[in-house]
């Protein structure tokens, strides 16, 4: 039996997940909590948001995000993959920055428009 | 002469201008002091925005980008790099900008959407030396996310508000070591989900009922001393922990930025540090509205958007249909367990069918009832499983119930046996 706080919504339900009963969740206020409880113990995932270097734009950094959640254990690997990236303005929101980052099948995409300028 | 001038181009100003345009105002001006629209959202690169409004999870810049795009399809005028210096009670706005110099513009209606700023070290009087390396969490967020600087490598965070928690994760992802998050209250001021995904995911300890009692270092922060506090929030001698660090981030609250509001003589509420507003976000000066964090500090931008849309619509109605009547105005009072309410005044005549009432509680409550009472009459009762000071609460009052109230209504919280 494992105790978790649900992060799906601001309510923060105190979940109990039973690993021996196919990850049955109790204490959840809604169905999404049951899904979260099971996923958190079998394959926890997170969306990674960060920034990359951007040249010739209105700001020196452009925000990016993974377009779907990646396995929690891969977060630092994704961060390392962003290290060497340098974009050139203009950049459009949704532009793919890295395809299939760290073999996760997830893409890193731009999270804003970055116009030319200084 | 403008129909409407919106002061501030963050999420509140963007939504208010958009809604006023949709309701038929044609000559609208947004005045923004930064070089772009979007306000604080531009530096909030984490996700979790838009779940209510767009029904999907967006980052801050994406959320702002959607509103900026909508606005670009209207005829709303935007003046960037322009600072408003003064608002007069007769709705003249003094402003100074790089491109346009000093200007005075007149409007039939005004929306105040200036947002808030962070409390600093000075506001909470931490003892110790005054070295470099002490930042508000939001300032650090701007350095990291927009300008590309990492403010430090070994970090202690004071305050467990959401910005502090978000920055604990952000600094860690960027390679800094976050040693501790320290909170003077016995509960966190941030959302539970942020405790989990920003602290627990990275094994960052959260010290509740602790505070910073000394800052050491000559040129740069070298050590921070953390002590446990008693139930009166006084540090307990002998409980000191010393952290070797180069940076202290402060996430110790936000203050609505109301210099213009006060100067204009608008009635203020000491509990929210914002203007006293009616059900349609109108202030004590008819035709001047306030919305978003300048009115009261929100947890979620989605709620800022909803509130600001109401303010924008009300501004349009004021310009097109004239001043609202004051008959039967109700004062909203705080009862037991409630720290503030917005709105503070309700004119039932102006409520079409429902009136949303926002408030915060002063303690963590389980299984509670929210009671709305006028005199001896119970107007409405609502059940809640969970209430916390860090989470803004809302109840919806139907017009038919408001019509039963006289003079004032009181909102209070009562815990019930489970």
Overview of this structure, please?
The complex is a heterodimer of chains A (118) and B (418). Chain A is built from two helices and ten strands, in the order βββαββββαβββ. By secondary structure, chain A is an alpha+beta fold. The longest helix of chain A has 12 residues, at 31-42. Chain B is an alpha/beta fold and 418 residues long. Chain B contains nine helices and 29 strands. In chain B, strands 1, 2, 5, 6, 7, 8 and 21 form a seven-stranded mixed β-sheet that branches. A five-stranded parallel β-sheet of chain B has the order 10-17-11-12-13. The radius of gyration of chain B is 22 Å and the shape is globular. Chain B starts with a strand and ends with a strand. Chain A binds chain B through residues 4-12, 29, 46-51, 53, 58-61, 63, 65, 72, 75-76, 79, 93, 111-113, and chain B through 35-36, 42, 45-47, 57, 59, 61-62, 64-65, 144-148, 173-174, 191-193, 195-197, 201, 299-300, 385-386, 391.
Described by strand count, sense and barrel closure, the largest sheet of chain B is: 7 strands, mixed
How much of the residues of chain B is beta strand, in percent?
35-45%
Instruction: Show unreliable segments of chain B.
Output: none
Chain-averaged pLDDT of chain A: 92
Mean pLDDT of chain B: 95
Secondary structure layout:
The complex is a heterodimer of chains A (118) and B (418).
Chain A: E1 2-5, E2 14-18, E3 24-26, H1 31-42, E4 45-46, E5 49-55, E6 61-66, E7 70-71, H2 75-83, E8 86-88, E9 96-98, E10 108-110
Parallel strand pairs in A: 5-8
Antiparallel strand pairs in A: 1-2, 2-3, 4-7, 5-6, 6-10, 9-10
Chain B: E1 2-7, H1 11-22, E2 28-31, E3 47-49, E4 58-59, H2 60-72, E5 77-79, E6 82-87, E7 92-97, E8 101-112, E9 116-118, H3 121-124, E10 134-136, H4 137-147, E11 154-158, H5 162-173, E12 177-183, H6 192-199, E13 206-208, E14 210-216, E15 223-228, E16 241-244, E17 247-250, E18 254-256, H7 259-263, E19 268-269, E20 274-275, E21 288-290, H8 301-321, E22 330-334, E23 338-342, E24 345-346, E25 354-361, E26 365-374, E27 377-387, E28 393-398, H9 399-402, E29 408-415
Parallel strand pairs in B: 1-2, 1-8, 2-5, 8-21, 10-17, 11-12, 11-17, 12-13, 22-29
Antiparallel strand pairs in B: 3-4, 6-7, 7-8, 9-18, 14-15, 15-16, 19-20, 22-24, 23-25, 25-28, 26-27, 26-29
């Amino acid at each position: 039996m494992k105790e978790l706080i649900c992060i799906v919504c601001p309510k923060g339900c105190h979940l109990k997940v039973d690993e021996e009963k196919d990850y049955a969740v109790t204490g959840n206020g809604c169905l999404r909590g049951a899904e979260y409880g099971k996923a958190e113990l079998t394959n926890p995932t997170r969306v990674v948001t960060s920034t990359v270097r951007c040249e010739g734009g209105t700001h020196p950094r452009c925000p990016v995000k993974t377009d779907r959640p990646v396995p929690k254990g891969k977060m630092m690997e994704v961060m390392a993959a962003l290290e060497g990236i340098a974009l050139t303005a203009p950049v459009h929101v949704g532009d793919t920055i890295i395809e299939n980052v760290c073999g996760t099948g997830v893409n890193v995409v731009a999270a804003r428009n970055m116009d030319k300028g200084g | 002469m403008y129909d409407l001038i919106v002061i501030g181009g963050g999420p509140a100003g963007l939504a208010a201008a958009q809604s006023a345009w949709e309701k038929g105002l044609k000559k609208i001006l947004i005045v923004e002091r930064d070089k772009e629209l979007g306000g604080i959202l531009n530096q909030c690169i984490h996700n979790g925005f838009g779940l209510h409004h767009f029904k999907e999870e967006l980052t801050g810049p994406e959320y702002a980008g959607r509103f900026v795009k909508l606005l670009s399809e209207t005829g709303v005028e935007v003046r960037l790099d322009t600072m408003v210096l003064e608002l007069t009670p007769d709705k003249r706005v003094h402003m100074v900008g790089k491109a346009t110099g000093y200007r005075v513009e007149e409007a039939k209606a005004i929306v105040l959407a200036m947002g808030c700023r962070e409390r600093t070290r000075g506001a909470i009087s931490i003892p110790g030396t005054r070295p470099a390396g002490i930042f508000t969490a939001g300032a650090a967020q701007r350095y990291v996310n927009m300008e590309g600087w990492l403010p430090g490598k070994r970090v202690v965070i004071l305050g467990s508000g959401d910005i502090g928690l978000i920055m604990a994760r952000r600094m860690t992802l960027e390679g800094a070591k976050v040693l501790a998050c320290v909170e003077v209250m016995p509960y966190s001021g941030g959302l539970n989900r942020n405790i989990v995904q920003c602290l627990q995911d990275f094994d960052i300890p959260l010290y509740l009922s602790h505070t910073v009692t000394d800052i050491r270092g000559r040129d740069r922060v070298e050590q921070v001393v953390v002590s446990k506090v008693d139930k009166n929030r006084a540090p307990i001698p002998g409980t000191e922990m010393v952290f070797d660090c180069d940076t202290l981030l402060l996430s110790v609250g936000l203050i609505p930025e109301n210099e213009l509001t006060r100067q204009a003589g608008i009635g203020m509420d000491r509990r929210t540090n914002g203007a006293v507003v009616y059900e349609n976000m109108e202030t004590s000066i008819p035709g001047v509205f306030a919305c978003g964090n300048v009115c009261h500090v929100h947890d979620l931008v989605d709620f800022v958007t909803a509130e600001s849309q109401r303010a924008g619509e009300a501004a349009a109605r004021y310009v097109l249909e004239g001043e609202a009547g004051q008959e039967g105005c109700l004062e909203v009072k705080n009862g037991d367990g409630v720290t503030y309410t917005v709105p503070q005044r309700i004119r039932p005549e102006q409520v079409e069918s429902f009136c949303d009432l926002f408030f915060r509680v002063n303690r963590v409550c389980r299984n509670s009832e929210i009671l709305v009472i006028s005199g001896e009459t119970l107007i409405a009762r609502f059940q809640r499983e969970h209430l916390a000071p860090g989470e803004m609460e809302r109840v919806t009052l139907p017009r038919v119930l408001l019509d039963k109230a006289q003079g004032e209504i009181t909102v209070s919280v009562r815990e019930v046996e489970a």
